[in-house]
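Hi everyone, sorry if this is the wrong subforum. Our group has a chain we'd like a structural model of before ordering constructs, and none of us has done structure prediction before. Sequence below.
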Amino acid sequence: MDAVCVTEKVCDAKMQAFSESIKRHEEGLERQTEKTSDIRELIVEMAEINKRHDSEIDNHGKRLAELESKPSKRWETIVEAVLRWGIVAALVALLAIK
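Answer:
Right subforum, don't worry. Here is the predicted structure as C-alpha cells:
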C-alpha cells in the first residue's frame, strides 16, 4: 500500500507541475499573441505612413521639376524678346535707310 501512496503523490506532483507549466505556456502564448497583434497594427500604420511619404515625394518631384524648368523658360522669354526687338530694330533701320 505504501507504493500506491507514493505513486499517487508522485503522480499528483507531476500533474501539478504539468498544470503550472501549461498555465505558464498559455500565459506566454497570450502575451505573444498580444505582441503580434500590436506589431500588425504598427505595420498597418507604417504602410500608411509610407503611402503618404510616397505621395509627398511625388509632389516634391513635380515641384522640383517645375522650379528647375523656370530658368530655361526665362531664357527662352529673353531670347524671344531680343529677337523681336532685333527684327523691329532691323526693320526700322531698313526703313530709315530708304
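For your construct planning: The chain has one helix and no strands. The chain has a mean pLDDT of 88.
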